[in-house]
Amino acid sequence: MGFTDGRRITGMYTAEVARTDRITPHMVRVTFRGDDLTRLPRRGYDQWFRLFLPRGDGDTDFTAVPEGFGLGGYLKYLTAKSGTRPPFRNYTVRAHRPELGELDVDFVAHGDTGIAGPWAQRAQPGERVAFIDQGRGFDPIEDAEEVLLVGDESALPAVAGILRDLPRETAGLAIIEIPDPADRQDVDEPAGVEVRWLARADPHDRPGLLALDAVRAWIPERPTTLHAYLAGEQQLVAESRRHLVAAGVPKARISFTGYWRVGRAG
Ligand SMILES: Cc1cc2nc3c(=O)[nH]c(=O)nc-3n(C[C@H](O)[C@H](O)[C@H](O)COP(=O)(O)OP(=O)(O)OC[C@H]3O[C@@H](n4cnc5c(N)ncnc54)[C@H](O)[C@@H]3O)c2cc1C
User: Fold this and answer.
1) How far does the centroid of ligand 1 lie from the alpha carbon of residue 225, in Å?
2) CB 15: neighbour CB atoms within 10 A?
3) Full set of structural domains in the chain with CATH
4) Does the Cβ of 174 fall within 6 Å of ligand 1?
5) Is the distance from CB of 34 to CB of 14 less than 8 angstroms?
6) Which of 122, 190, 192, 215 could form a disulfide with 240 if both were Cys (CB 3.0 to 4.6 A apart)?
């Protein structure tokens, strides 16, 4: 399974906000609950989904949300009557407790611009949302001798999920850039994986540059048996991939996706 396989997955789920918690200065954890969450497949690692939010006028009619986000589903969404389409963004499962019908999602609180980040900061218990399951982007490569996981704060939930679910004998390095030292979270990494937290000098500095410097300073000893995972701001991902390919890492061994782009919505 990889990032593009989500197009083949179907499954629409609705839930409501149970509670919110500002867990660190720049991260809001929203806990959703609902019967649908008891049947959401638990895929582990960096499982992600399309999250459909209330419209600007507060409307939570999700009939325009398709069962899946392949070409047909996306067309159904796009051709729904104007004004009936709920906005959506992409998010990661931080924790799923199917037995309780609960799901935690960590939203970067990146200011007042946009839809999902600002929504999470003011979300109220009882507000309704919808999800489309998209599977996961990280698929362990069986012969990998080492992993390199790289992300900014938007990919902290993904990297934390991968660290939690990796076989305990895995070796490697995780580089996680955060806005502030206090944004560090407890993660459950295998003993052989070093987790390197890089906090920006100023939370407002451009995200991703510190992590990119760290990637560029890292030369894989055995590039052909590495599994690299890159997620976060587009430039961090693209430039990190370029560095690894130049260092001899086969492209097929690099799982990557640009999560967001400085100055670009959606
Ligand atoms: C597979 C996948 C999984 C993801 N998982 C998560 C997750 O678990 N948690 C999470 O917080 N994000 C996650 N993201 C990233 C998230 O989808 C984007 O950050 C998204 O743009 C946020 O939407 P928004 O409505 O808040 O802002 P938008 O409307 O998209 O953008 C508005 C403005 O905010 C800026 N912006 C957007 N995101 C950030 C950010 N993180 N930091 C600083 N500025 C930003 C944009 O450049 C733009 O100028 C994931 C993305 C993908 C593709």
Assistant:
1) 31
2) 22
3) 3-133 (2.40.30.10), 146-260 (3.40.50.80)
4) no
5) yes
6) 215
